[in-house]
Give the backbone structure.
Amino acid sequence: MQTLSQQLFIGLSLASILLLAALGLTFTFGQMGIINMAHGEFIMAGAYVPYALQTGLLAGHAGGAFAAALPVAFLVVGAMGLVLYRLLLRRMLGRTLDTLLVTVGVALIMQQAARDVFGAQNVEVVAPSWLSGNSRLLGVTMPHTRLFIMALVVVIVAGLSVFLARAPQGRRMRAVMGHRDLASVSGLRASRVDGATFFVGSALAGLAGVAVALVGPIGSAVGTGYVVDAFLVVIVGGVGKLRGTIIAALAIGLLNAYVEKYLSGVSQSAASLAKAVVLAGVILFLQFRPNGIVSFRSRGLAT
């Protein structure tokens, strides 16, 4: 029983990281159909923000630097995403393959820039003292860093839900995601909404990067390991659906944790095998529900 509870915590921890990585794609991919392969590099950029603050402006103040990194990463990485959209991607809406190729190139440029600025070796972000140590509940060991990431996810999801339901910009985003053409003929400027959406999606990737910096060493390729899993979460959950993304992240995280634990007694490469099993499960699931867990119900334009 204790082992099952420990794996439950591990699965929820993994799910929270997957959800953080996937939230930004939920909006950019769901609203504009842009396959942004540079999303992982936005996560990487966010991960370097606390490191840059701890070794620069706020050196010697690990706790203050990490706390400041959250709003700084949100704004800086969001601005990077907005620049990418304004300069390149807004001219490629509806050209999915072009956005894929362009963002792969942008990702490579960002990786090289990170190596030039921060070096090729991985670096460590110092966790604040108030996040050090573990707690135990019912025999389950829970690192404070993981608990913080879970709490951060809850706060972000709650904030997004309120933003989409109450804020005028959030309602515009929902309208464009629901049906771009209907939103346009209703008077919404879809291009302006797209820019705001890309800012929010990229900013969320920046927050995910700050969380990832607590998990282990960071380097120029730290986001590459998350971008494919993030796309899986978005597709399984239903493109553009926040509720489906949450359910998919929980399902994939828990499945991965329990499968890896089961295979650990069978093979030394349990982690890789668990990912393969999860991927096979995703493929099988999409055969029966190709639109994901939650799909849009929309009306077509009258003709």
Q: What stands out?
A: The chain has eleven helices and two strands.
